[in-house]
Specification:
Largest sheet: 6 strands, mixed
Structural class: alpha/beta
Radius of gyration: 36 Å
CATH architecture of the largest domain: Up-down Bundle
GO molecular function: ABC-type oligopeptide transporter activity; ATP binding; ATP hydrolysis activity
Distance between the termini: 65 Å
Organism: Leptothoe spongobia TAU-MAC 1115
Helix content: 55-70%
CATH class of the largest domain: Mainly Alpha
Strand order of the largest sheet: 6-7-8-3-9-10
Bound molecules: adenosine-5'-triphosphate
CATH topology of the largest domain: ABC transporter transmembrane region fold
Subcellular location: Cell membrane
Membrane topology: Multi-pass membrane protein
Shape: elongated
Number of helices: 21
Protein name: ABC transporter ATP-binding protein
Length: 582
């Protein structure tokens, strides 16, 4: 059964329960003292009625000052403790969100925008911090104030207490009436904030495209529309809050006025002593402040509740591909690099036909195999299936005779280096990008990988050579340089199998062929699967697999395939024609 929001909140607090219990415990102490002080004051008033004695006054003043100081110190300590818990929960949640997001597949990030996720990890977490800091403190304060003060008031005068508190159920009713509206409006604000963050994030990433298509005005309008929606959502929320909060404050003060009016009359008729009257007044005053804060407390609570839902939605998304319970360990040193598919089929969710269908092949260790075929023929899908970036069925794909679904996922990914077409680089030094998979790699290893990827000579021409910072996502490098840096990164981890998914598309044919040659000989020899539209680079591979509409339609080396009528011959002829026309 799904957990309730309260259960989630309790689970966030669990690691810090001692601090919470201690913080709330000392808050109880302060509330006990705040019931005691009005009693003392009432007592002084009564005594002074009998005799006016400077000495008594002084003694009481010192006592009250001492108690007030102790209360102040305890209140401070409870705030530090409970607000501190809020901060710690904020830290825990951010940490958990980040770790959880890292466990999810790229498909999750295609369905959920980055702006929205960032907003959840920051603004929503902040709302939970407020809930578990301010709201918990305030709710505990209200609870103790009522539980301790009301019985003390009743002991003085049942009638006056009931009349003074008659207003409080009205306040609760008001809070109840407004609460759904406040929650919905809070949700609208969070959603609008996410939409705005998404737009900013997307526009900043695609600023080049915006300029090429001269879409600045349209983007400004889109921004203005979302910003306006956020403004409206914030104003609606502010309207509701500004209606409710002063109403609550006003009603709470009304009880003070009632005690004043009725109490004075009771003193006159002799049914209430002046001392008790003063004590009652102070008690009602004790209740007014926390009750007036009820509005803020409720909003903080509701804001936090909305955010709990939004954060738990992230945790609810589970990685589709995970290590099976019975998975075996496959150390990279033991991998020979043989791959076999037996009727491999994969269909993307919400599509009608499989992207790859009933595919079978064997690729021997050290073989360099090109995968060619028209756009959309399933090459990338097959490439992603190999390191299980896609969730493939059991018993259809094998690495060295081990079913890939039964190999521990980190071992499988360590054995198969996958280089996608879009070569993402981090905004750090070239050398750090190269050693991303092996953070402790030394310069000779880094240089060796760069040489194999044919990027070494260009790096040496960069202003700071290997220490050159590549800018966000490698913006300061050319497409081909980015691709070869990404390839160098994959080569540095020295995996026995290398999958290049159109990863040399911005590299000229000659360099691409040179790179493949580097990988086919000597100690660096690997099993290479080279997905490409570059026919002349493919022609040099040991073997070529030709795909069409999710099926393998031809297999063989260039010489045999090119002489047989079929898809390969067509692709080759098109390529030759293009060369002539260029
Ligand atoms: N995430 C996805 N969700 C749904 N369908 C997808 C997804 N990715 C790819 N497809 C579909 O699967 C089919 C095969 O796509 P795939 O990317 O494997 O082709 P490809 O041969 O690599 O193409 P290209 O040469 O353009 O890279 C296509 O019809 C494509 O539209």
């Amino acid at each position: 059964m799904a957990k309730s929001r309260l259960q989630y909140l309790t689970s966030y607090l669990k690691p810090h329960r001692r601090q919470v219990i201690f913080g709330i415990g000392i808050l109880l102490l302060v509330n006990i003292l705040s019931v005691w002080i009005p009693l003392i004051i009432g007592d002084v008033v009564e005594r002074l009625k009998i005799t006016f004695n400077q000495g008594i006054i002084l003694r009481y003043v010192v006592l009250i000052l001492a108690l007030a100081t102790v209360m102040w110190a305890i209140r401070m300590a409870s705030r530090v403790l409970i607000f501190g818990v809020g901060r710690k929960v904020e830290f825990d949640l951010k940490q958990r969100i980040f770790e959880h997001l890292l466990s999810l597949e790229p498909a999750y990030f295609a369905e959920n925008t980055i702006g929205d996720l960032i907003n959840r990890a920051t603004s929503d977490v902040d709302n939970i911090r407020r809930l578990l800091g301010f709201a918990v403190l305030s709710l505990a304060n209200i609870f103790f104030a009522y539980c301790l003060t009301v019985p003390a008031m009743l002991r003085i005068s049942i009638r006056l207490t009931l009349v003074a508190l008659a207003i409080y159920p009205v306040m609760m009713l008001l809070v109840g009436t407004f609460s759904n509206r406040l929650r919905q409006e809070q949700l609208d604000v969070q959603q609008s904030l996410s939409d705005l963050s998404t737009l900013i994030q997307e526009d900043m990433s695609g600023v080049g495209l915006i300029k090429i298509y001269a879409q600045e005005t349209n983007e400004q309008q889109a921004f203005s529309k979302r910003n306006d929606e956020l403004l409206k959502a914030n104003l609606a929320l502010a309207r509701t809050r500004n209606t409710l909060f002063p109403l609550l404050g006003g009603l709470a003060s009304l009880s003070l006025a009632i005690i004043l009016a009725l109490g004075a009359r009771n003193i006159a008729t002799g049914t209430l002593t002046v001392g008790d009257f003063v004590t009652l007044l102070l008690y009602v005053n004790n209740l007014v402040f926390p009750t007036a804060l009820l509005g803020f407390t409720i909003t903080s609570y509701q804001r936090g509740e909305v955010s709990v839902d939004r954060i738990e939605a992230i945790f609810a998304a589970q990685p589709k591909v995970a290590t099976a319970a019975t998975a075996l360990s496959l150390p990279v040193t033991q991998v020979r690099g043989r791959l076999q598919a037996k009727g491999l089929t994969y269909q993307y969710p919400d599509t009608d036909t499989p992207a790859i269908h009933d595919i079978s092949f064997i690729i021997e260790p050290g073989e360099t195999v090109a995968l060619v075929g028209p756009i959309g023929s399933g090459k990338s899908t097959l490439a992603k299936a190999l390191p299980r970036i896609l969730e493939i069925p059991q018993g259809q794909l094998f690495i060295d005779d081990h079913d890939v679904t039964q190999v521990m996922l980190p071992d499988l990914r360590r054995a198969i280096a996958f280089v996608p077409q879009d070569s993402f680089l981090f905004s750090t030094k070239v050398k750090n990008n190269l050693r991303y998979g092996v953070p402790l790699a030394e310069m000779p290893e880094i240089e060796q990988a760069a040489k194999l990827a044919q990027i070494q000579s260009e790096i040496l021409n960069f202003p700071n050579q290997y220490d050159t910072v590549v800018g966000e996502r490698g913006i300061t490098l050319s497409g081909g340089q980015r691709q070869r840096t990404a390839l160098g990164r994959a080569l540095l981890i020295d995996a026995p199998i290398l999958v290049l998914d159109d990863a040399l598309s911005s590299v000229d044919n000659q360099t691409a062929t040179q790179i493949l040659d580097n990988l086919s000989y000597g100690t660096q020899r690997k099993t290479v699967i080279f997905i490409t539209h570059q026919m002349s680079a493919a022609a040099n591979c040991d073997r070529i697999i030709v795909m069409d509409q999710g099926h393998i339609v031809q297999t063989g080396n260039h010489d045999s395939l090119v002489t047989h009528p079929g898809l390969y011959q067509q692709l080759w002829n098109q390529h030759k024609l293009k060369e002539v026309l260029q």
